[in-house]
Amino acid sequence: MTDPATPRLAALTGLIADETRAACLLALLDGRAWTAGELARHAGVAASTLSEHLGKLVAGGLLTEERQGRHRYVRLADARVAQLVEDLTAYVRPGGAAVRAPRTLRESSASGAMARGRTCYDHLAGHLGITITRAMTERGLLRQDAGFALTDEGIGWFGELGIGLERTGRRPLARACLDWTERRPHLAGVAGAALCRHALDAGWCVRIGTERAVKVTPAGALALDAHLGIVAPR
Amino acid sequence: MTDPATPRLAALTGLIADETRAACLLALLDGRAWTAGELARHAGVAASTLSEHLGKLVAGGLLTEERQGRHRYVRLADARVAQLVEDLTAYVRPGGAAVRAPRTLRESSASGAMARGRTCYDHLAGHLGITITRAMTERGLLRQDAGFALTDEGIGWFGELGIGLERTGRRPLARACLDWTERRPHLAGVAGAALCRHALDAGWCVRIGTERAVKVTPAGALALDAHLGIVAPR
DNA sequence: ACGATCGTTCGGCGCGCGCCGAACGGTTCC
DNA sequence: GGAACCGTTCGGCGCGCGCCGAACGATCGT
């Protein structure tokens, strides 16, 4: 009669349907591991309260824990959970219907705001992520008009850069992740994660402090210009 | 400090985090309008209880209501809500190796028809939807290997059939929806909805009873063979 | 050794929520 | 008109959940 998935659907959403737990999941969207104490301070509740919340989130499979000494590190279980939280968050962000007029690549990269980039779980977001995504689209490496997928040229582009694209499980090679500051899609999925990792490994950008913000290095600006035609702000 | 979307995320998931409301949303995934009484019987609760649930779901923007006489018809607000429920359901389903075996003959024939073809909100799912999606992929109309998008040939294919693809808002032209019986992706999005509507309008398939199951007509079999090379889909 | 820090467990408190049945207003059909 | 039906509102009930503080164990630093 009723769908057998009903109780699981209710249980899953019930796991997120608490402001404290929701705050934890959103904080963990940066893809890094947080300690229980950090999350407790971040959410503004007692440590004992948050301990119980973490227990539920781990038991529910949304988080994985990693004990080191007297610390309990916790992170999102996998990319699927990150995508789930992203999807829910994208739905709930205000003004979803507003689509801004597309700016030219020159405008978007000349402002200097590209320095304001950040990671979203395991891929690049913020102005940096959007600029890269839009440059890839304009160069025919990515197509967004009929879905969201890499073109053959795009796959070749990753190969030329020596970035491996291993398809693990069911995770899509390319998928759109909606940025909540710019409200525009940026590249996520296996390709987005690989590109982000390469950008950090190759020194194209570096993390700023303990936040999820990243900054483009001079070498990174050269690389982005060479490979994507993105003119670095000077 | 904490993400401003936190309370909205908790509120949204809290709206779904109830077995009765979750059962309603899953039932409404067929894209049709249900009366309050039907949903009450389906969920197995008193009419008064369900009335309050509907009030919350409507107030929360997940459902829209339509009063006709002494009936209160309710349906999913839009495709975004349908996608949200689909995403959550897709997350919660794949773990289930426990697929209940139908017991009675009536159940088995009903589930068989559902597996063969059915609608998922506004697009085709089940074996029929997957077969069509696979055929489109093999013919180069759709690509799944690097994301999920129509190819230029695919866009032309819709044009040749006289199926209009209007880009409304930000709904993607093509997107994958995971089928829960076959556990394979099938075409959703604007293109999926347009194809489903065309299939019903042109008599390629007809609805069976009041469920969401659909059956391919002889004329539909000919059309699927002619346009996609599908031989006798069952 | 010591204190400091981190996390967990446990009792207890209070609020909120889902549920029902009874009563009521509105609509349809005879 | 009356009867049957659909949906809503309103008490009232009970359970569950989130929260805290206090106590405890475990770990790290000195």
What labels describe this entry?
three-stranded antiparallel beta sheet, four-stranded antiparallel beta sheet, homodimer, DNA-binding, 234 residues, 10 helices
Notes on the protein architecture:
The structure is a homodimer of 234-residue chains. The first copy, chain A, has helices spanning 6-16, 19-27, 36-43, 47-59, 79-92, 105-110, 126-138, 152-160, 189-201, 218-228; strands at 34-35, 63-68, 71-76, 117-120, 123-125, 142-143, 147-150, 175-178, 185-188, 205-207, 213-216. The first copy, chain A, contains 10 helices and 11 strands. The first copy, chain A, is globular, with a radius of gyration of 19 Å. In chain A, the strands form 4 sheets. In chain A, strands 5-4-11-10 form a 4-stranded antiparallel sheet. In chain A, helix 3 (36-43) packs across helix 4. The longest helix of chain A has 14 residues, at 79-92. Chain A is of the alpha+beta class. In chain A, 46% of the residues lie in helices and 18% in strands. The structure holds a DNA duplex (30 and 30 nucleotides).
Number of β-strand runs of chain A: 11
The pair of chains with the biggest contact is: A-B, 57 and 57 residues
Rounded to the nearest angstrom, the distance between the terminal CA atoms of chain A is 64 Å
Identify low-pLDDT runs of chain A.
Answer: 96-115
SS-based class of chain A = alpha+beta
- What spatial order of strands do you see in the largest sheet of chain A? 5-4-11-10
- What is the CA-based Rg of chain A, rounded? 19 Å
The helicity of chain A comes to 40-55%
Sequence of secondary-structure elements of chain A: HHEHHEEHHEEHEEHEEHEEH
How would the global form of chain A be characterised? globular
Strand content of chain A: 15-25%
* Total of helices of chain A: 10
Arithmetic mean of pLDDT of chain A: 84
What quaternary form is this?
Answer: homodimer
Largest beta-sheet details of chain A: 4 strands, antiparallel
